[in-house]
Amino acid sequence: MAEGPLEKLRMFLRELPPAARALLRAELERAAARGDEVPAGDFILAELRRDAGAEQTARLEPVARASPPPPAAPETGRIESASRMFFAPLEPFLVDDLPDRVHRGRIARAALEPAWQWICRDLMPKEAKTYSDEMARSLLTNDRVMSERMARAFQDQAVQRMRDALTAAQDDSKARQRLAAQLGIAKALEHLREILGILRARDALNVFASRLPPQIKNLADDHLDNVRALLDSPIGGHPDVFVYALVLVMGRLASPWQLVRLAVKAAESDVAAKIMGTSYAVAVSIILGEMDRILSVLRDDIKRGRFDSASEMLKDLYDAARLLRTELDLSGDSPWARQLTATRSEISNLVRAEIETVPGRVRRLLRQRKPSEIRSGAVLDRTEVQETEALIEFVSVCRNYASELAINEVTLRVHSEVQNYLETGISPLLDSLRGADEAHRAFRQSQVDAAVRFAGKVFGASYASLLAKAADVAAKAADTAGQDGERKAAKA
Predict the structure, then answer these.
(1) Is residue 156 part of a domain?
(2) Is residue 68 part of a domain?
(3) Last-in-domain residue among 163, 182, 200
(4) I need a labelling partner for 135 at 20 to 30 A (CA). Which of 83, 197, 290, 322 fits?
């Protein structure tokens, strides 16, 4: 398939309702479990899984929840794959990101399939085939206990083999290159180390997660002391567990960025230099890494015109930056201060480049046109109107977070320009609609409709409602004038 059809297919899949995507994903996973070949099935399934992961993590909250999602109900007909059962302990640590971006305690979801292929093809092919066949039979009978038991046994086998492979690659450059080539993804060895680390700490992490509250609304006072004690216990404080335990805690926090309070508590100081001397310094690194990941999601959302999601990502970044600057003393020249400054600067540049186009978009759509410039029966492009409306709303959202994210000047200027243009430009549009002839009426009407939508985002629903009533009056006046003209022409 060419790039064009692939992109069209991707957009089609993303426009499906959530229930339809879930049903299609279940059918494709069932076909894969049977070994059936489906044209473009791998691509479609990867897209559906990616969107499902995004809905469960980055779109709904900035970090993954600590507990893996519950198994699908039997009536859905979904058959869990052998690989999904194998990677189940990794679920709280998965993020939807590119494999070439590595963050502490996180694994890119896109790295799992290459890792599974490597296990089945190169690491332990015979054992993997036996496991997959037995798992398929067990899952068909909905024997969840047996399926989990088999997955644990195969995880234990794989852990030892992965350790041996990484040990061999550590001191042998050729073995390291070969292993990276077999996995076939960027930062392959880093992802493999994270997978191995989580699988090795599987049981300890399960115990740790079971002792955490389901949700912590505010990490302070007793909650802060209790979580700190759990992290300092033999289970949570173990070097192989500590980083992942922090990620689990982050997943239980209503405000994930409050994780920094553990670092301040451990150092008994908010000074960055003192915190860096404790084991809890990694908590700040996890937060900064999460901000970096959300920034990449924001960049992708803006590029694809998904401004509703972009607004959510912008709020997450605002909350994180504000809490870090509130809880930490970043006045010195520390690596954390430099990284936070760089992140805020990148957000500013990204948002500025997009919202600075808004006034020009509005003027292009709503400018007065001579009748000779309008094709008979033409209307404004619906997609362009929708994109501009979404951008205007995005500007309003940006105003709420402008000061913290260093976008104050540009958001105020853009909002003011759009506001002034609408205040002065709507009245001439209504006049043009009143006097429009039949050939140009549809275009004049589409301009007024667009102006009503834009005004709703800038001035509010009440103003837009009044403007819509004025537009109706103007449209009726145009109809009356048209009918009078037709009667005069008939008499003549």
Answers:
(1) yes
(2) no
(3) 200
(4) 197
d(CA 161, CA 370): 75
In terms of Cβ atoms closer than 10 Å to its own Cβ (0-12, 13-18, 19+), residue 339 is: middle
Q: 33 or 456: whose pLDDT is higher?
A: 456
The total number of structural domains in the chain stands at 4
What pLDDT was estimated at residue 483? 52
H-helix or E-strand spanning residue 9: helix 3-15
Q: Which domain holds residue 7?
A: 1-29
**Angle of CA points 198, 279, 341, to nearest 5°:** 95
| CA trace torsion 101, 106, 112, 116 (10° rounding) | 120
Which of 20-29, 125-134, 138-147, 215-224 comes out lowest in average pLDDT?
20-29
Question: For the whole model, what pTM was predicted?
Answer: 0.76
225 and 340, same structural domain? yes
Summarize pLDDT for 357-381 with one digit per residue, the tens. 999 999 999 999 988 999 988 999 9
Mean pLDDT of all residues belonging to the chain? 85
Is the Cα torsion angle 202, 203, 204, 209 positive or negative in sign?
positive
Same domain, 179 and 216: no
The pLDDT score that the predictor gives to residue 50 is 63
Q: pLDDT over 70 for what percent of the chain?
A: 86
Confidence at residue 131, expressed as pLDDT on a 0 to 100 scale:
94
Query: Rounded distance, CA 287 to CA 289, Å?
Result: 5
Q: Using N-to-C axis directions, what is the helix angle for 221-231 and 242-252, rounded to 10°?
A: 150
In the predicted structure, residue 484 carries a pLDDT above the cut 70 = no
Same domain, 24 and 122: no
Smallest CA-to-CA distance from 418 within 358, 366, 357, 464 is with: 358
The answer to whether residue 41 sits within a structural domain is no
Same-domain check for residues 325 and 254: yes
**CA quadruple 33, 37, 42, 44: dihedral sign:** negative
pLDDT tens for residues 293-333?
Answer: 999 989 988 988 888 888 999 999 999 999 999 999 988 78
- 108: three-class secondary structure by DSSP: strand
DSSP secondary structure letters along 152-208: HHHHHHHHHHHHHHHHHHHS-HHHHHHHHHHH-STTHHHHHHHHHHHHHTHHHHHHH
Radius of gyration of the chain (CA): 28
- Tell me what pLDDT residue 30 has: 62
**Exposed, middle or buried, 229 (CB in 10 Å: 0-12/13-18/19+)?**
exposed
Same domain as 348, residue 369 = no
433 in any annotated domain: yes
326 and 379 together in one domain: no
Q: Is it the case that residue 75 has pLDDT exceeding 60?
A: no
Helix or strand holding residue 107 (H, E) = strand 107-108
